[in-house]
Structures are given as structure tokens and as C-alpha cells.
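Researcher: Going back to the complex we discussed earlier. I've cleaned up the inputs and rechecked each line, so this should be the final set. Can you rerun the prediction on the complete assembly and write out the structure?
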Amino acid sequence: LVEPLEATETATHPPAVRLTIPHQKLALLHPADIADVVEEMTADERVAVFQQLDIETAADTLQEVEPEMQAAIVSDLPEERAADILEEMDPDEAADLLQDLPEERREELVDLMQKEEAQDVEELLTYPEDSAGGIMTSDFLALPGELTAAQAIDLLREKKPDPALTYYLYVVDPQEKLEGVLSLRDLVVASPETRVTEIMDPNILKVSAETSKEDVASLIAKYDLLALPVVDARGRLRGTVTVDDVVELMLPRGWKKRSGRTLAR
Amino acid sequence: LVEPLEATETATHPPAVRLTIPHQKLALLHPADIADVVEEMTADERVAVFQQLDIETAADTLQEVEPEMQAAIVSDLPEERAADILEEMDPDEAADLLQDLPEERREELVDLMQKEEAQDVEELLTYPEDSAGGIMTSDFLALPGELTAAQAIDLLREKKPDPALTYYLYVVDPQEKLEGVLSLRDLVVASPETRVTEIMDPNILKVSAETSKEDVASLIAKYDLLALPVVDARGRLRGTVTVDDVVELMLPRGWKKRSGRTLAR
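Model: Rerun complete. Updated structure for the full complex:
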């Protein structure tokens, strides 16, 4: 689920790592901690780290690095490697990063990405940065309405999606139109033969891609949501804005670093 | 899962309700919307609403009302009714509310509450308001480590816990010591005979009740968590701080109301 620093005591001991850590050991840390270490390195050291980490860890780490530095790292990496890492990143994070690159470099990298991931990112690049479209991710789980609870659970067993995608499950019709939402808990508690359309809540709050990110944050805060679906003019599900994006948006700059420093006393 | 305003279009139409809505219709709204309406009422109207709503809706609504007004409403309600509503509230919200009442009134109400709920709230009242203990909830799901995945799922089917409690499942030993965490998705994907201790992530980040709420917010933001467990000196699980508390903490005052106003254009 999460693999933070190996905190065997309550989180009051100093972070165990700074610059002296060998690269092999780095990979054992949580990506958010690797990012902290990377931010203290020279440009050459950073490139070496992103060459050596496995692709998934590299992607998770890169999206935790300060935005300006993300673009610098991607510019310094060989193009093929950079494209591989971008493919593994959350599509919204990859789009934000690409937006910070010169147009020529951006197009080269998108051309090198797998077609499906490239299309996701290119769609996200068409929305203004401060809109729901600009902060949403196109990774989400959409269940066809004709599935039963048991079939939906089998689908999850087969696909083994990232846990973060399983908190809200969206139900869509054959035209991808958003019909309702349910939680994995609803699916588990329901009797196996029930259709997901009978379990789902059809009164679903949704926004358009043009909704401002402040309005999205307000809705997520007001209704204590973990995510808010984004639909197009035909009501088709295009993506979701998740609560961690809202936290990121509202967090006073420097707070993310606070934990490390404060706990290091 | 959530029952916001019945938004059949994307959320751009004006909120349909203000003061003229009959009480019976009020109960059909999302508690966060009922709270908005209640805040515009006179003290007498408010008391009438909280007498008429069913207990669960009354509790969900009260915790969405501005903190100062919550205390005023509880002071104006008959004691028995107030105690019933407090029992149904999230323990952390009930404790915050009781903290705003005069000591005598607070003690009377706690005495009228069911023993179990009263104990939860009294424990929470012992922590400073700006600490992890002060913002945590004592509602969480703890699974005994000897359960198999299938047994844990059966337990969920039987208890039907609130979906918000099922995103992270905590594994504890017979002394309530926190041993690890897993997601419901991990449970669903695992083969049925696997023990939860084999599925869980034992590298779990946790804080003590004395940790400052800013440090808690930083950790949740840094590691993109939905909740952070709070343990006592013996490592026993006492509660969890959830991401919606962090959003609440960071939200600029007035933002929660923004959605209604902005979308009403």
C-alpha cells in the first residue's frame, strides 16, 4: 500500500539518509524520500540515479521532485529513457512535466512514448493548467453496468489495479457515459449476483474539464470526497481529480519538507 | 457512497434550495447542503430542523455546520436529543464540539451518551486540540492478524462498516499493537486462504497522539496517504487521522462555501 521510511518507532527519529547513501540502497526508500535525496544532488548525480532506478520507482520518484527540477532532469536524460519514465508516470503528472519543456523537446518525447500513454497525455495537454482537465488523471476504473458484483470482483482480481484506483469505482454505459459510483466496500458487501447498476449511487457529483481547480477543491472539501469525476459535454467519463491533488494544491509551499526537518530534532 | 445535490447536469446549475424549502424536503439533500441551509436560519428554525431530521442525518449535518454554530445548536436542543445526536457523530467531531461547551453542560451530555461512545469521546478530549490526538477519530477497522483474506472479507460483509473506514485496514496483534496495513483491494486480490499478516505492509508510518497536526498534515501530503494511524507508547492503535481532516485544516476559510456561490452564476 505505502512503503514509507522504515519507521519501526513512531515517526520521531531523524531521517536515516542524506547524500552518502549508495544508489542501490536508495531504491529501498519511499519515492517521496528518494525525491528529497535527489533534490540535494548535483545534476550529474541526479541523471545517474534516474538511469539506475527501475522504471516504476524512477517514475514515482520523478513526480515527487520539485516541478522545475523535474523538467531539468528529463532534459538531461537520454530521450528513450525519459520517454520510458514518462509512460510510467501518472498521466496528469507527465502532462504537467511536459508542459514545462520547450515545444520541440516535448513533441520528440511524446513521439517516443507508447501510443496509448501518449494519447492520454496529449489529451490532458489540451486543458488549461488551472482547470479540472489540467489537474485530473485519466487513470481510473470504469465498470460496464451489466456486470454483476461477482464479475466486477473477478475483473479486479484479474487486472490488479493500483489500490489508489479502487476507492471509487465508476459505472459507465456502452457509450462511456458516467452512470454512477460505488465503493469497493459496496461491491464486497453486495450479494454476488447483484448488478453493479443496482449497487451504485446514481446521484453522482461531476464537473466538466473547464471547471476551475479552486471549485474542484471546494467540492472535494465540502463533500469529503476522495475523487471527483470529470465528464465531457456528452457526459462521458474523461478522468478524475483525486484528493491528493487537492492537498498538493492547498499545501503551503515548504510544508511537504516540514516533516523531515521537524522530525529530525 | 455520496449523495450530493442531485446534479443531473455537470455542476454548473444554481443550488436549487434556500430558506423556502419545507423540512421534509431538507432531509433529501446531502448533509453538507442541509448545513448550508441551516446556517441561514434563525436559532428557533435550526432547533426545529435538528428535532425533525432522523438521528443519522442530524449528526452528519451538525458536523458540517460552522463550529461556533454547532455549540449553539447543541445548547438549544433538549439534552436527550443532543446526546443522541452526539453519539452518532464521528467521535473526533463530537469531541471538538463538546470542547466548545461550558464544562457543566459538557459533563451532563457525556453522562447521557451511551457508555462506549462516551468513552471514545472522553479519551479524545484528553488530547490538545492541535495534536494528532485532537484531530484523530477513534473509528477505524482493526483486523486480528490470524484472519485469512476470506475470513476478513466475511467480517466486512457481516459488519458492513462505513465505506470511509474500509480504504485502509489495520492489522493488530492480540494486545492491539499495530502490525501493518492493507487495502481492501489487497484483500480482494489475495488468494482466500492467505493470512492478512502475509498480505499487509508491515512498514507502516505512524505517529503518536502528541505529534503536531501540522506534522501529520505534512506526512499525509508527502506520502499521498488517505489516513495516518496514531499509536500510544506501547504501539497500540488508538485512532487515525484521515485526509479529509487535513483538507479541512488547510482549506482557506470560506472555500467550502465557494462552490455554492461560484456555481450559482
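Model: Worth noting: Confidence is low (pLDDT under 50) at residues 1-19, 259-265 of chain B.
Researcher: Good, that matches what I expected from the previous run.
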